[in-house]
TrEMBL record:
InterPro entries: Aldolase_TIM (IPR013785), GH (IPR017853), Glyco_hydro_27 (IPR002241). This is alpha-galactosidase. Pfam families: Melibiase_2. Its EC number is 3.2.1.22. The lineage of its organism: Eukaryota, Fungi, Fungi incertae sedis, Mucoromycota, Glomeromycotina. It comes from Gigaspora rosea. It catalyses: Hydrolysis of terminal, non-reducing alpha-D-galactose residues in alpha-D-galactosides, including galactose oligosaccharides, galactomannans and galactolipids.
Amino acid sequence: MGWNSYNALHYNIDETLIKQHVDIIANQGYLAVGYRYINLDDGWQASTRTADNKLSLIH
């Protein structure tokens, strides 16, 4: 099993939040019940881009 950042944080992702969530997973027994993966996903698959070719977060 695993945890995916997009399901919890959507596009609001940064290093601090990821570390906080990993600590929660480690300290609250998730490893003992089978969690093994931390999947980082920040919406990279957005279908549109801005004029300067950055991913657009507007759907």
